[in-house]
Write a structure and sequence with these properties.
Elements lengths: L7 H7 L5 H13 L3 E7 L6 E3 L7 H17 L3 E4 L5 E9 L2 E10 L5 H21 L5 H6 L6 H9 L4 E3 L3 E8 L8 E7 L2 E8 L4 H20 L4 H16 L6 E8 L4 E7 L3 E6 L2 E4 L19 E4 L5 E5 L1 H4 L13 H7 L6 H15 L9 E8 L12
Antiparallel strand pairs: 1-2, 1-5, 3-4, 4-5, 6-7, 7-16, 8-9, 9-10, 10-11, 11-14, 12-13, 12-15, 15-16
Helix pairs in contact: 1-4, 2-4, 6-7, 7-8, 10-11
EC number: 3.1.3.16
InterPro entries: Bact_Sigma-Reg (IPR052016), PPM-type-like_dom_sf (IPR036457), PPM-type_phosphatase-like_dom (IPR001932)
Enzyme class: hydrolase
Length: about 400
């Protein structure tokens, strides 16, 4: 069966970037006699999945399949939905390197064999890679993802992100920004390089476009040092010097830089400000004690020191910005005092990709469903250990 789809990867590579869904549709219809296919993409809040091929799909038809698509998206496993007429809808995850893009729907005339499901899953994998690459060449899929217009600052922030999740034999990592359509300066970045994972979380200064510009300078300065082989300290110092010599200390950026050695779970950290790192082990949620140093850009030629701690297989790390930890709507106690820990404990059976949404929804609920007053970023790292062992939700 899979041999029949051998040319699909080549055909997708040769297709115009805005026509990938149509090319895959033709291949699956011809090869399997499918009566319908569609690509569903996750929106910026990951609050829903939205069709690409049939964006005008009536609400009734959309809602009928939405629950199954969401189940597939959350579980990252194929989901089969048989109808009374004998037809079967197959939902498959569109995921590449752990980055969850959405769900691929294939409607077949009868229940498929295991070999057929595996063949369509391979096509979904090829399509996910092509969609990820095409995102820089066309606006079609970005338009499908947005449920409202992005602010200029948010447009910059989303373009600057490395992705929203990444997987590795030793870890699963995910992040989320809110408010998704108007976020200004809060940000996260990461890079996987051999046995090293580098993660940075920025608590942006000011609001709007000026905050996004400052964050862009900070992130790219750290990337420049990292891509030149610079250590964690060199990344922080280059970014700090760059910001200072542009703004002479009038603006600065609170940043946490982490570097995880994936061979032994040792974490090196530069704490340059306010983002907090918390460790979840079993039902225990504790803040990792780090000595805060000066925010990036506050003074000329600031020098930084590395601190270290370790994680054990099954540990989960959350990194949160001030917009999460210190949120105190209506004069209530900060979200980080007690409510945040409850939300984090509630995620223990979820993978990191779902956990970030749970903590964000807890924050929204704490605000009584009014708009967040400050940007918020949550990053979640599930550490499995070098052998990939860890607890169930980390697999």
């Amino acid at each position: 069966m899979s041999d029949a789809f051998g040319p699909v990867a080549r055909v997708l590579r040769e297709a115009p970037p805005d026509r990938l869904a149509e090319v895959a549709d033709r291949a699956v219809r011809a090869g399997l006699g499918a009566s319908r296919t569609d690509v569903f993409v996750a929106d910026y809040r990951i609050s829903g999945l939205w069709p690409v091929l049939d964006p005008e799909l009536p609400d009734a038809g959309f809602l009928a399949c939405h629950g199954m698509a969401q189940r597939c998206f959350s579980s990252q496993q194929p989901v089969l939905d048989g109808g009374d007429d004998g037809r079967c809808r197959v939902y498959l995850p569109l995921t590449v390197w752990g980055e969850r893009l959405g769900v691929y729907l294939v409607e077949l005339p009868a229940a498929p064999s295991a070999a057929t499901v595996e063949a369509v899953r391979d096509i979904a994998g090829e399509l996910a890679v092509a969609l990820r690459a095409a995102d820089r060449q066309t606006d079609r899929y970005r338009r499908a993802r947005r449920r409202e217009r992005l602010s200029m600052a948010a447009e910059m922030q989303w373009d600057l992100l490395p992705g929203r999740s990444v997987t590795h034999g030793a870890f699963l990592l995910a992040g989320q920004l809110e408010p998704a359509y108007t976020v200004g300066g809060d940000h996260f970045d990461w890079s996987v390089d051999g046995d090293r994972l580098t993660v940075t979380v920025l608590n942006g200064a000011d609001t709007g476009l000026s905050a996004a510009l400052l964050t862009a300078v900070s992130v790219n300065a750290m990337r420049n040092a990292r891509r030149s082989g610079g250590s964690l300290v060199e990344q922080a110092e280059l970014a700090s010097d760059t910001i200072f010599f542009q703004h002479r200390g009038e603006r600065h950026v609170a940043t946490l830089l982490l570097e995880l050695d994936t061979t032994d779970g040792r974490v090196r950290a530069v704490d340059a400000g306010s983002p907090h790192v918390l460790r979840v082990r079993g039902r225990s949620v504790v803040r990792v004690p780090l000595e805060q140093q000066l925010p990036l850009g506050m003074f000329a030629e600031t020098r930084y020191e590395v601190q270290e701690f370790t994680v054990e297989p099954g540990d989960r790390l959350f990194v949160v910005s001030d917009g999460v930890y210190a949120a105190a709507p209506g004069g209530r106690e900060p979200y980080g005092e007690r409510a945040m820990a409850r939300s984090m404990r509630a995620t223990r059976l979820q993978p990191a990709t779902e956990a970030v949404g749970t903590v964000m929804r807890g924050l929204q609920s704490y605000h009584a469903d009014v708009d967040l007053r400050d940007d918020a970023v949550v990053v979640c790292l599930d550490w499995r250990g070098q052998s990939g062992e860890g607890v169930g939700w980390a697999r």
